[in-house]
Design goal:
Length: 287
């Protein structure tokens, strides 16, 4: 979870979320929630020695923090965002200042609103690293779109290229799990795709196999969610999209109230909110 979070953009067959402002949600994600996964990004980049010579393709790049961190290490970065133009617009704002200062940075950075196939042409060298950092294993069916993205992206990478997948750790090691259960409770009877479920041990391996990848190592990273106050915590968690079904089934006021109550055990005497979490990542290889 950045101390970012989870796959937000499942296909929805129901009505749009009442009163949802995509621009405000994207800003809450970028300003509050996305930073929660920084320890995950750092651990992966350190293990895979990301730096000059790395050509990174980031799937579901969101508002671009992971790309910015890789670029600061000297990597060439391409970000693909298929579901949230609002987040992608923020990624452009985040990466453009560096591009303006450095023509080399401009040549090393590319953001694509579309599929991975839009991130390659005849002149584009093969990517040497593919990342999918939005954690899976928290929503029923949250891996479906990821398998499709990976299947489109892997032909753009050389044989043996590492592909990084991320997922939630065991519920007993993720304090935020107790808050996320509110989403399922309120979304009933709309329970189904998009409802919370406990992560399974082999979630990441299953996705890798379905995408035709070969698992080749994994790791766990502590990613605590820390917020200035309860209001920031609520905004950050709602920005993930995990509570959208609950808002549709009830209303925004009810969800705000239930989430605020669920956050109470994690509120510290100074008013801040602190929830320890563990995330898991899998390194798979392009065959």
């Amino acid at each position: 979870m950045t101390p970012t979070l989870v796959r937000q953009h499942l296909p929805r067959t129901g009505p749009p979320v009442p009163h949802a402002d995509p621009g405000a949600r994207a800003r809450d994600w970028s300003e509050i929630q996305e930073r929660m996964l920084v320890p995950l990004y750092e651990a992966v980049y350190e293990r895979l020695e990301v730096g000059p010579g790395t050509r990174l393709l980031g799937l579901g790049c969101g508002s671009g923090l992971a790309l910015l961190m890789a670029s600061s290490r000297g990597a060439d970065v391409t970000g693909v965002e298929t579901s949230s133009p609002e987040r992608l617009a923020l990624a452009r704002q985040r990466l453009e200042p560096a591009e303006a200062r450095d023509a080399r940075a401009r040549a090393r950075t590319r953001l694509v609103d579309g599929s991975p196939l839009d991130a390659a042409d005849a002149q584009t060298p093969a990517y040497t690293l593919v990342t999918a950092f939005e954690p899976i294993g928290c929503l029923a069916g949250d891996a479906e779109g990821l398998v499709e993205l990976l299947s489109a992206a892997t032909p753009l990478a050389a044989r043996g290229t590492p592909v990084v997948l991320a997922g939630w750790g065991p519920p007993e090691r993720c304090a935020t799990s107790s808050v996320l259960r509110v989403a399922t409770k309120l979304a009933d009877p709309e329970r189904g795709a998009g409802s919370w479920r406990p992560p399974l041990r082999d979630d990441l391996e299953e996705v890798a196999h379905r995408a035709g990848l070969r698992p080749d190592g994994s790791g766990r990273v502590a990613c605590p969610f820390g917020y200035a106050d309860v209001d920031s915590a609520r905004k950050g968690l709602l920005s993930t999209g995990l509570f959208d079904a609950a808002i549709t089934a009830t209303d925004q006021e009810r969800v705000d109230k239930e989430v605020t109550e669920a956050l109470h055990p994690y509120r510290r005497p100074d008013g801040t909110v602190w929830m320890p979490n563990v995330f898991r990542y899998l390194i798979a290889r392009v065959p």
